[in-house]
Structure formats: structure tokens, C-alpha cells
Amino acid sequence: MSERDSDNVRLALQRFHHLSELGDEQILELAEQVSVNRARPGACLLEFGSLENRLLYLVEGEVELLAEDGERRIIRHTDAAAMAPVARLRPSRYRVLARSRVSYLLIDHEIVDRLAREERIDAMRVNEADISIDGDSADDPASHPLMFDVLEDINRGVILLPSEGDIAIRVGRALQGADDDVARMTEILSVCPVIALKVVRAAILDSPRSRPVRSVRDAVIALGADRVVELAVKSVLRESLRSHADATRDHMNHWWGMTVRVAAASSAIARISERFDPELAALIGLSHSFGEAVLLQYVERHGDIDQDPALDKAVSCNRAQVGRILAVLWDLPRELLEATTQADNWFYEDHQAEASYIDILLVARWFAHSSIGDYDDLPRIGTMPAFDRIGIKSASNEFQRSIELAASQAVSRAKAVIAVY
After folding, report:
1. What is the DSSP letter of 23?
2. 236-256 average pLDDT score
3. In whole angstroms, what is the distance from residue 81 CA to residue 91 CA?
4. Across-strand partners of 102?
5. 3-113: which CATH number, 2.60.120.10, 3.30.460.80, 2.40.50.100, 3.40.309.10?
6. In a 10 Å sphere around its CB, with 0-12 CB exposed, 13-18 middle and 19+ buried, how is residue 40 labelled?
7. What is the mean pLDDT of residues 19-36?
8. Which of 105, 128, 136, 212 could form a disulfide with 57 if both were Cys (CB 3.0 to 4.6 A apart)?
9. What pTM, to 2 d.p., does this model score?
């Protein structure tokens, strides 16, 4: 590659969302591995149903996305949609055709994810020296000694993710009677966010890079029924929350119910556009606040926060940080990491991008809280950028009601799945 071509590639990489977040060294490394492709009008850049492992980034020109049902969409390199990969999902839901002379990049998603992960690890290193409990900071939940315990266990590699005991037991029993039915096992696992996340994590560790795991269903297929059941049983026996404090148990139960509601609402919202995968949205909804469950197992070591509202404050102030660290270390999907980091940021704004899974999560959280009449600290819809980007305010009343219904009925539906076990 000539020096000029290399410069052109570097400039192109820096304009794309996510890639622009890479450091200079990562950009240089990536630029050495890709080149600018060119195509004439009418050329097919990506076939419908393609499993192509590389992502297509539009540098210049205009392309048409043709869905299987005949729906067409035009994207120009100046559009916000061109700041992200074109037709990212695999198998591809679109045939991508050049409408003009185009230049584009094809970049292996594994390389992008690896470089982004390296950059995130460098950016998120946290140790005890970063936390001070001197003077006035002693009353700050973000610098509470509880966090010393959590970070120490993360550094030692012994961190546990506890589940809600009764739910986990029933899920374990239900899985043993699922008879290798992938759809049934996925439904059962989605009742317990913790076991679902552990299955996903195990599948990520076991699966080849050519088969990314981006949903609970993907994880079930990758691991197989026997391994899923084995993981669930071990989780129930070894890592269920064991607490004698009513406040802690109540908090865990509330967290479980809210998480199930958010997952259901996230899946419903994702169906508003073909750009989103409802199964990935559901996984993000299930997993976005798993840092909260991690923190709850440390509460009984600290008598000053074992009662509300101190418990609520300590957990809410630290769950995003804990979740972010573990999401990076566990190599969870990038979309999940980003949503976990921004889950409490009601006013999250990204002027360079179209709607994202972060926006889906924030809107889903809003509906999950409102579905049970929990309006405390909820912002008004009109003040949340996520509602505008998702297009909820302009959506039909029927669609809005479907989201509300999904959230309000999620807990009863989840309990029905495991009712006989």
C-alpha cells in the first residue's frame, strides 16, 4: 500500500463511529490491514443472507439496501447511517448495491473488536489507588469500602455473579425438561438474567471467532443442551445469592423483575427497524445492570449499607462501573458494554450516530419503570434524546402500547414459563 493510500485509509477510518474511538496506534494497525475498494454503479457489494465476516463501511458514493420483502433504503456517504457499518447483521438482511461509483472498506469485525477491546481495557483500568475514603469522600457511595472488596476480587479473578435463588432453581429444573429444544431453552434462560449471561459468556469462550455469540439463542446453539444444563445447575448450587438480610433479598427480587421488564421492552422496541436485532436487544436488556447483582453479595460485609436507602444508593452509584469492567474482561458484545456503561444516563446524546442499542435500552428502561407506576426520578419523555432518535414519539399509539404491554406483562409471563417447576 502506498503512503498516500495509507493516509486515505487512516482518514476514512477516523470518520466512522466506533472506529473513531480507537487510539492512534490502533488506527495505524487497522489501516495496515485494509484497503479502499471501488465499484461501479449496479455492482453488488453484499448479498442477502451473506455470512461475510467483514463489515462494509461506505467511504464515498451512494448505495441501495434491498430487503427480502422488497423494502428499499438509500444511504449516501454523507448520511448519519454511513457513520456505522452498512448492513451489519449476519446473516445479512439486505442486498447492498452501488447506485453510483462508490469507494468502501471491508474490515474484519474480529480485528475491530480486538482493537476496541484493547483500547477499552487501557481506558478503564481501575485499582484501589484510584479510590479515596479520606475526609468528606467517606460518605460517597462511589468510594465506599465495598468497592475495595469488589475490585480486589476482580483482580484475583474470583468475582461471582449471584442469581435470585428461587428463580434460578426453577430455571435449572425447567432446563432439564426442555428436551434439546433450542427455542424452549432460550425462553427458559431468559427468565433468569444471571444464568443467561453465564451461558452467553461460556459460549463466547468456547466459540470460534468466526461465529460470534450475540444472543441467548446463539449461546444455546453453540454450547448444546447438556452443557447449558450443566452450567445452570452449577450456577444454582454455587452462586445463588445467600443473604439473611430482608433488604438485600428484596433488592435482588426487585432487580430481577425490573431486568425482565427491560428485556421484554427492548426486544419490542428493536422491531421498529430492520437495523436492530431483537435478540441482541433482549440480551442487552437482560444484562445491562448485572453489576448490581454482583454488588449485592458484598452488602452484608458492610453494616452501614445493609438497609434502604443506603443500599439503593451504594448499588446505583457503582453498578455501571462494575458492569463496564466485567463486560470488558469477559469479552461481551461491544453493544452490551456500551449500553451497560450508559444505562443510567437518561440524557445520553451522540450527535454522530443514528439510533443505537443504547437508545433502545434507555427507552426500554423508561417504559419498564412507568409500567409499574415508578415515576420517581423518571425524566419527561420530551427531554430524552433517545426517544427522538428511536422515533417513539412519532410511532403509532398501537406500537407504544405494545411496548408498555411487553414491559407490564413480562414478570407474569416469566413466572408462567417456570410455574410448574
Report:
1. -
2. 83
3. 19
4. 39
5. 2.60.120.10
6. exposed
7. 74
8. 105
9. 0.72
